[in-house]
Design brief:
Mean pLDDT: 94
Number of domains: 3
Helix content: 25-40%
Number of strands: 26
Shape: globular
Largest sheet: 11 strands, mixed
Number of helices: 17
Structural class: alpha/beta
CATH superfamily of the largest domain: Mur-like, catalytic domain
CATH architecture of the largest domain: 3-Layer(aba) Sandwich
Strand order of the largest sheet: 11-10-9-12-8-13-14-15-16-17-18
Strand content: 15-25%
Length: 485
């Protein structure tokens, strides 16, 4: 519980009427969750506008309302606060309500199309191994120390974010690592947080169903970097042309990392197999359990963050060599007969290209690569034919299948994907809408030594069809199918 006036610190208030000293018991932006003494924040969302639910919030017991425009004839017994940006205010108010927990943590955020989950998760694992207690916000799972919490969004809403960070502080966490999605930046879910560091991985074709244009997608990432203070560090991937864009007008200290050229932090691959790869990072050699140039980049980012946070470089490399794979990210499942199965979250054209290129660099010429992939429903349709083309071009055999069709007809999604296939590519492709049967078929046609890539869902444990999530885990299904081979 906090006095209303204290909650408004840092909020740009246009007008105020009511009791500044009232005690607020909760911060709510969903009118259905109001309890007596709550402050209701009316936020304009992508699907609904909280201003349409102010009346409902008042009826349910809201003591105060913060909004961008007052309703007609606002009840006088309610305290009204008007601001230009309710979403930004929600972030700042949530931070104030929970005692500004981010200021008591060394908070590092990671943004980019690909690599966020791997980097954030490995940083959490690394620092826990180094003896620090720390928190994690990721697509796969959230952690307070070693206590696991369910993750519902890549980046939670401001109230949940600050509530969990408050738990981190109260349980003695020193660090917190967070995936920062473009949606979270655009919707100002991270407003009011104090970052020690920010990492940019890359920017490729994704989320245009939400952002509409690539420029707006880029701007959502850059706005976060522009908000950093001069007390923070900004670490960007110099191998992506948008990395240096993030540093323009950024007040934080600038650092770069690269696996192909000159940068503040450098790395190159010495050798690799399906068991792992040997890297040279800043002149020091280290063996890791990961494969692929993009994972070399991810590991270099982890190393760079740790060093920037003051950890001894040799200590970092020693612990990095023991780090295991992240759930659903190039996760390997092998059969007794020598078939290598790989589950990966790749669900964008660029991510698929990277994964398939990596596997093709490692597999021998007489080894087949069989790829099983689909595309999500109610999402950017323009990437579907590109995903199919990239998968077919890089694979010996392609099986197109369903992947979270949501409210769309899965067969029509496959039609969209097939538009990217030339007649020659179609001849080595089949479509099996049932994902379980698609995985079984891939295993059935595989020979000893072959590689099967099941892409798109990674760590997910469900198939979403018409608003219902049915249990489905690629790792389980591939493991079952491979058990007989």
């Amino acid at each position: 519980m906090t006095e209303l006036g204290n909650l408004l610190n840092g909020v740009e208030v246009k007008s105020f009427s009511g009791n500044r000293e009232m005690i607020i018991t909760d911060i709510v932006f969903d009118s259905r969750k109001i309890t007596d003494g709550s402050l209701f924040v009316a936020v304009k969302g992508s699907r609904s506008d909280g201003h349409d639910f102010i009346e409902s919030a008042v009826k349910n017991g809201a003591a105060a309302v913060i909004c961008e425009r007052l309703p007609d004839n606002p009840p006088e017994h309610i305290t009204w606060i008007v601001t230009d940006d309710s979403a930004r205010a929600l972030g700042q108010i949530s931070s104030n309500f929970y005692g500004n927990p981010s200021s008591s943590l060394k908070l590092v955020g990671i943004t980019g199309t690909n690599g966020k989950t791997t980097i954030a998760t490995l940083l959490h694992k690394l620092f826990m191994r180094l003896g620090y207690k720390c928190g994690l916000f990721s697509t796969v799972c959230n952690y307070v120390g070693d206590r696991e919490l369910e993750a519902t969004h890549t980046t939670p809403d401001p109230v949940q974010l600050n509530r969990v960070m408050s738990e981190m502080v109260n349980t003695g966490c020193d660090y917190a690592f967070m995936e920062v999605s473009s949606h979270a930046s655009d919707q100002k879910r991270i407003s009011g947080l104090e970052y020690t560091g920010a990492v940019f991985t890359n920017l490729t074709h994704d989320h245009l169903d939400y952002h509409k244009t690539f420029d707006r997608y880029l701007a959502a990432k850059k706005n976060w970097f522009d908000s950093l203070t001069n007390k923070a560090f900004a670490l960007v991937n110099a191998d992506d042309r948008n990395g240096l864009v993030m540093l323009q007008n950024c007040k934080a200290s600038h650092y770069t990392f690269s696996v192909t050229g000159m940068a503040d932090f450098r790395c190159n691959i010495i050798e690799q197999s399906f068991q792992g790869m040997s890297l040279r990072i800043m002149g020091e050699e280290v063996w890791t359990k990961f494969i692929g140039e993009y994972n070399a980049s991810n590991l270099l980012a982890v190393y760079s963050v740790a060093v920037l946070l003051g950890v001894n470089s040799r200590e970092v490399l020693t612990e990095m060599s023991d780090l295991g794979s992240v759930a659903g990210r190039l996760e390997v499942i092998r059969s007794r007969g020598g078939i290598t199965g790989i589950v990966d979250y790749a669900h964008t054209p660029d991510a698929l290209f990277n994964v398939i290129s990596t596997l093709n660099k490692i597999r021998k010429k007489n080894v087949n690569l069989i790829t099983v992939v689909g595309a999500g429903g109610d999402r950017d349709r323009t990437k579907r034919p590109k995903m199919a083309a990239i998968s077919a071009e890089g694979s010996t055999k392609l099986i197109l299948t369903s992947d979270n069709p949501r409210t769309e007809d899965p067969e029509k999604i496959l039609d969209d994907m097939e538009e990217g296939l030339t007649p020659d590519l179609k001849r080595r492709s089949v479509r099996i809408c049932d994902r379980r049967e698609a995985i079984k078929t891939a295993v059935m046609i595989a020979n000893p030594g072959d590689v099967i890539l099941v892409a798109g869902k990674g760590h997910e444990t469900y198939q979403e069809v018409n608003g219902v999530k049915h249990h489905f885990d690629d790792r389980e299904e591939l493991g079952k199918a491979l058990s007989d081979k």
